[in-house]
C-alpha cells in the first residue's frame, strides 16, 4: 500500500510505499533529509484494484494448441495495381490516356504517347481500344472543357 505525507520543511506532498517506513530520503522539492513516517489511517492510500473482488479471483489460462498449421486470422490485402503490373502472370489490364495529360507547352504529344504505349504492350496483347470523351473544369479559366482520350484494355 502507499501512504501520503508532507515534507516538514516545504510542505510538498510525497507518496511512498508503507514498507519504506523509517527510511531516510531527500525531499525531491527542497532536498531536505526526511524520515518516512509510520503509516496511520489518515495517510494510507489503498489501491482500489487490490482490494476489489476481481483482484482476488484466481484465473488459470491455457494456450490453445493446434494440430498442423493455425488458421490465418488476418487476411493479406490485395496487391496494388503497380504491384500487379510487375507480376509475371498475364492478366487483363486497363490504361486510360487523356489528351490533356499529353499536352506540353504548345505541343500535343497525345498520338506519340499512345503509339509508344501500344508498341510497348505489343499488338498480340491488345484486347480493345475505346475512345473516350469527357468534360472537366479548367482551373485557370474556370470553364467546363470537353476533351478526349483512349481506354486501352490489354493482357499483361
Textual characterization of the structure:
- With 156 residues, this protein is mainly β.
- The chain has two domains: 2-52, no CATH class; 84-155, no CATH class.
- The protein is built from three helices and ten strands, in the order βββββααβββαββ.
- It has helices at 53-56, 81-86, 110-121, and strands spanning 2-6, 13-17, 24-26, 33-35, 44-45, 92-98, 103-104, 107-108, 126-138, 143-155.
- Strands 2-1-5 form a three-stranded antiparallel sheet, with no helix packed on it.
- Strand 9 and strand 10 form a beta hairpin.
- The mean pLDDT is 82.
Summarize the structure.
The protein has 156 residues and is mainly β. The protein has three helices and ten strands. A hairpin with a 4-residue loop joins strand 9 and strand 10.
Keywords, separated by commas or semicolons:
156 residues; mainly beta; 2 domains; three-stranded antiparallel beta sheet
Chain-wise SSE layout:
Layout: E1 2-6, E2 13-17, E3 24-26, E4 33-35, E5 44-45, H1 53-56, H2 81-86, E6 92-98, E7 103-104, E8 107-108, H3 110-121, E9 126-138, E10 143-155
Antiparallel strand pairs: 1-2, 1-5, 3-4, 6-10, 7-8, 9-10
Strand order of the largest sheet: 2-1-5
For the largest beta-sheet, the strand count, sense and barrel status come to: 3 strands, antiparallel
Rg over CA atoms, rounded to whole Å, is 38 Å
Overall spatial form? elongated
Please state roughly what percent of the residues sit in beta strands, choosing from under 5%, 5-15%, 15-25%, 25-35%, 35-45% or over 45%.
Answer: 35-45%
Oligomer: single chain
Number of helices: 3
Name the helix and strand elements from N-terminus to C-terminus, one letter apiece. EEEEEHHEEEHEE
Low-confidence segments, given as residue ranges, are none
- Content-based structural category: mainly beta
Helix residue percentage: 10-25%
The count of β-strands is 10
Mean pLDDT: 82
Number of domains: 2
| Distance between the first and last residues' Cα | 70 Å
Amino acid at each position: 500500500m502507499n501512504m501520503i505525507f508532507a515534507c516538514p520543511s516545504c510542505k510538498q506532498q510525497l507518496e511512498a510505499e508503507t514498507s519504506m517506513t523509517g527510511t531516510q530520503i531527500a525531499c525531491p522539492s527542497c532536498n531536505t533529509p526526511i524520515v518516512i513516517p509510520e503509516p496511520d489511517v489518515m495517510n494510507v492510500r489503498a489501491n482500489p484494484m487490490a482490494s476489489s473482488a476481481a483482484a482476488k479471483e484466481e484465473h488459470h489460462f491455457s494456450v490453445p494448441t493446434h494440430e498442423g498449421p493455425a488458421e490465418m486470422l488476418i487476411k493479406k490485402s490485395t496487391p496494388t495495381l503497380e504491384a500487379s503490373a510487375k507480376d509475371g502472370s498475364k492478366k487483363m489490364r486497363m490504361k486510360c490516356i487523356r489528351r490533356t495529360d499529353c499536352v506540353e507547352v504548345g505541343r500535343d504529344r497525345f498520338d506519340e504517347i499512345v503509339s509508344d504505349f501500344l508498341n510497348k504492350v505489343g499488338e498480340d496483347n491488345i484486347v480493345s481500344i475505346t475512345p473516350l470523351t469527357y468534360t472537366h473544369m479548367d482551373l485557370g479559366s474556370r470553364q467546363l472543357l470537353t476533351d478526349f482520350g483512349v481506354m486501352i484494355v490489354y493482357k499483361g
